[in-house]
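1st attempt posting a full record on here, be nice pls
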Amino acid sequence: MFYTQDFNRVLNSMEAIFNSETTSEYNYKDGVFTMPLPGFSKKDLEIEMVGSTLTISAEVKEEDETFYKKSFKKTFKASNIDVESVTASMSNGILTIMLDKKVNPRKIKVA
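the predicted structure (as tokens):
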């Protein structure tokens, strides 16, 4: 017998996940940021890097929304990133952003 209380708990958990700001988890390792975005294409996304703030967003018209595809805006802090070298690609529902560390050359005075 399937318990209504358990079923409601599962539905409420799913609703909390899919009605959150974004339905995706992200991963960052060694300068590579990945975020699964099923249902989205690269034309749906806007990515902006200003200073140390990376913002990923998508505006989805209400009639185009699906279970997975909803408008969202997610902001991340990244330090010491070369903003000019940031690149992004989208393949099979996975957004990949390459974040290169800033190289600050400096002259070293010999004492």
